[in-house]
Design goal:
59% helix, mainly alpha, two-stranded antiparallel sheet, 320 residues, 12 helices
């Protein structure tokens, strides 16, 4: 029976994907493997695991570190103090720590979102994403096109996230929507996705997927205009690769956890990349509740002057 099956495959010209291609296909051809999940299911599983691992692994580390008092040298102390008050080092490090009840609420809500809501949403969104140009299998993009893709994703993410976040601080939207996120006056990693559902959609999911979707829709034009970069076999006109999307979602999740961590770790690359604000940049936003609306970079804040309070604070800090 096996020989007959192989002969049928040979006659029909079917081949397995080569080692240079990335794919969510093929697992169902192996007896006993992925018996239930089709390509759509495997895509949802990969996206869920990438997102979940990037959120929970560093957060477990951060929660243990805070509980045991590790890395005091890297703790951020952005909380403003009253005139004439000179806080002790311990007061600076542990002021405004979130209550255990608040941390527990954020953990429960994040767990439901990651392991119940997100996989269902990814599964349901798969037909739309593939219609818009997502390609779950095939050759991976070249290094040059990958760099351009990621920069485009970042630009789209930053632009939408900055303006939505800034709008959420308007008095008509802050109290009813954004205030939930600022319940954490002292930023901690688990607070990264503790948001109102409307904010989760417009300041989380949509900015995250805007770049990959627009790139997928316009990839045919890019392949025609820049064939040496984009018109590789299986790429031109077929948009964002599913594995690149998983990597992008994981990277952005790691960055937002780092931004909310409350630690300025020297080994965290997001704290040192050109144009990136790092953890201190966003920690100032939580402790002072003003400016610094950018998600990853400070570019829009600098262009619009919404980082002025932060820059003044840095100058004062250096002058001490």
């Amino acid at each position: 029976a096996l020989q007959a099956r192989l002969a049928i495959h040979a006659d029909s010209g079917e081949q397995l994907s080569g080692p240079s291609s990335g794919s969510f296909e093929g697992a169902h051809d192996t007896p006993g493997a992925m018996l239930v999940l089709d390509e759509r299911g495997r895509f949802a599983l990969a996206l869920t695991l990438g997102h979940g691992a990037a959120f929970w692994i560093p957060n477990i580390f951060l929660l243990v570190a805070r509980h045991l008092g590790w890395f005091p040298a890297y703790r951020l102390t952005n909380k403003p103090h009253g005139q004439g008050h000179q806080p002790s080092k311990s007061e600076e490090l542990w002021a405004d720590e979130p209550s255990p009840a608040l941390v527990q609420a954020a953990m429960i809500e994040s767990a439901i979102g990651h392991w119940l809501v997100f996989p269902v949403a990814a599964y349901l969104a798969f037909p739309l994403l593939t219609t818009l140009g997502l390609r779950p299998s095939g050759p991976l993009p070249t290094a040059a096109s990958l760099v351009i893709e990621l920069l485009f994703y970042l630009f789209c993410n930053e632009t939408m996230s900055y303006w939505v976040h800034r709008a959420l601080h308007h008095r008509l939207l802050y109290r009813s929507i954004h205030k939930k996120h600022h319940t954490f006056a002292r930023s901690v990693g688990i607070a990264a996705e503790y948001t109102h559902p409307i904010e989760s959609l417009f300041n989380g999911i949509l900015p995250l997927f805007l770049g990959p979707v627009l790139f997928s829709m316009g990839s045919g034009w890019l392949a025609a205009l820049f064939p040496r970069v984009f018109d590789v076999p299986g790429f031109g006109g077929h948009g964002t690769h599913g594995m690149v999307l998983v990597g992008w979602v994981a990277a952005r999740t790691l960055d937002t956890v780092n931004s909310h961590s409350g630690y300025q770790f020297p080994f965290a690359p997001f704290n040192h990349l050109p144009g990136c604000g790092g953890a201190e940049f966003h920690d100032f936003h939580h402790s002072h509740n003003v400016g610094n609306y950018g998600a990853v970079t400070y570019v829009w804040d600098h262009l619009c002057g919404t980082d002025k309070a932060y820059r003044d604070w840095l100058s004062e800090k250096k002058a001490r």
